Amino acid sequence: MRRRRLFKFLKGLGLALLTLVLLLGFIYLLLPKGPRATMPFDDPHGVDRPAATSDHFMAATGNPWATQAALQVMQDGGNAVDAAVASLLVLNVTFGEAASVPGVAPVLVYDAQHNAVESYIGAGTAPAKATIESFKGRGRANVPEMNIWSQLLPASPDVIIALLEKYGTKSFAELSAPAIRIAKEGYPVHDTLLKDLDLSLVERLGYTILMPYNAQVYLGGQWWRPLHHAEITRRLDLANTFESMAQAEQSVLSSGGTRQSGLQAVRDDFYKGEIAQKIVAFHAQKGGLFTAEDLANYQGAWEKPLSGQFGDYTIFANNTWTQGGVVLMALQMLDGIDLKAMGHNSPEYAHTVLQAIELAMADREAYFDDPQFVQVPIQGLLDPRYAQERRKLMTPGQAFTQMPPPGDPARLAGSLPTPTNPTVTSDRAGWLATPSVGKDTSYLSIVDAAGNAVSMTPQRFPQNADGAGHRPDPGQPHGAVLPGPAASGYAPARQAPPHHPQPEHGLQGWQVPDESRDPRRRYPDANYPAGFFEHDRLWNGPPGGD
Known about the structure:
α6 (172-185) packs antiparallel against α10 and α14 (325-334) packs across α16 (347-367). It is built from 19 helices and twelve strands. The chain has two domains: 58-302 and 440-536, no CATH class; 307-433, Gamma-glutamyltranspeptidase, large (L) subunit, C-terminal domain (Serum Albumin, Chain A, Domain 1), CATH 1.10.246. It is α+β, with helices and mostly antiparallel strands and 546 residues long. The strands form three sheets. A six-stranded antiparallel sheet has the order 1-9-10-2-3-6, with helices on one face. Strands 7-8-11-12 form a four-stranded antiparallel sheet, with helices on one face. A two-stranded antiparallel sheet has the order 4-5.
């Protein structure tokens, strides 16, 4: 009797579930799945175009709207830094999944009047609560991937104010106007955005359930409807954030305040005002680590950039809180090798360049860290004599089968060790076989009529919800957009790398067991800008990440 009743119950339950599935399927079929409102858009992505030239000023950025904003600022009398800020803010709107407002913005600035290059530390630190004890107390051996505990403090707004204070000529209100207009009026879904958010029906549904606000921003709250090319998308809360920051500045200026005090008001609005309060409340709600003190006390700094030589070119990069020095080291190893004779992209050419990069990367793994906390032997690493010795480790016609060993730049004062055959210091086969790569970076390069230049690599953080495979992971809370009228558009900030791939070396920066880890110590950033000088000619460009 009981068995029969159970069978009857299960049969009824099965029929009910089947009916529900059929009903939901019928409703889904009736829901609109085509494009929302569209706008004319000639997407330049992947299209061959003639090279741009100019006798006055130029800008190259991550998309047409950011480039146009930069050009318009310079047309209206602004300089390269003004143009860079306007361009960055537009990228935050139109390419936010790769270059978000609270992300990082490593930058190099060339001051033509003083013939000087400066670097600004545009990468956030961890919050004060991100201590070894905190992670171990949660049973974590490494910084977790795609987790609110891996977020770093927002750096990009600080970079903007630092740039405008030192080199800018226009107000934040003027420079944020293009971004605010585009965020309100909308812009077309471009090819890159379409690929970044190429979600299946199941992923869109999960995204909506677990991260409803994000889904509202990116999908219009319609899980059943994929994005379509050229349909209009808006970022209204982000527009409100920029307007709040601009109004803070204008309030000070209208009261007779100075330009400096106006810019400070913009900074305070983000790091101490309503925006900061919403960020802290979000972290409190989600069990995060950010406090009001973390945000209020955050500050980047100007620094002397690294530099190296390749033939007639002088190359500049940010310090070892990024991996920019790898480019200098690799190029100095290649300096003196007749690469042209090998033929561009020939097997011999590619082999030689790649081995130089691999040798530089081995030193990066061993020595690069935040120079404010770790004594990095950068003078030795960038010494041409050291490059010559490292070059002797190259094996023409034979690949390195394993990661080559790091060198010993500190011994330059005496005799350098005799080069030996490269040997592995850790097994990276699994790490290399399953790389987690996402479109988490953009770039802007700007030169004004006076010759001033900016090279910047804005990004959100790697391996976040829009990271691996370019798909948002609806199961992770890190990327939730802040709610409310002054929402910043993205929860902060950039993610700390999950682990160091070569723990046998002295740099254990990304591993929790390193007892010397200070939350303020910056992790070497994989992406970085670069600047090149050939006599009096300037070249800008981002070498990219790994």
